[in-house]
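Full entry
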Amino acid sequence: MHGRGTYYFANGDKYTGDWVDDKWTGEGVFIRAGGDKYEGQYKDGKQHGRGTCYFANGDKYTGDWVDDKRTGEGVFIWADGDKYEGKFKDGKQHGIGKMQYSNGNIKQGLWYGGVFLSFLQR
C-alpha cells in the first residue's frame, strides 16, 4: 500500500493514515480494540516522532516516540491526576524531569529507568 488509507485488523484494531511501501509512515491514528488510541507520526510501521497516546485506563502521554517507545521529551498524565514532565527513554522516566502528584507534592530531579535518583541542586 502507498498513500493514505484505513486498515481493519481481524482482532478489531484499526489504523488510518499514511502508508509508504506497505508500512505506516507519516501521520496516522491507530485504535486498539481494547480502547488505547495513538495519534501522531509513524516511521517504518512504528510510532516515531511526535504523538499522543490515550490509554483505555485514562492515562495519557504526549511527546516524542522512537521505535514505538516513549523516548525524548514528553508529558505523561495518569488517570489519578499524577503528572510527569521531562525526559523519557525506552518508555520510562529517564533524565531530568518533574513529577507532580495529585496531592500537590512535587519531585523534580534526575530519573533513571523510571526510578527517581536525586533532587536538583540549586
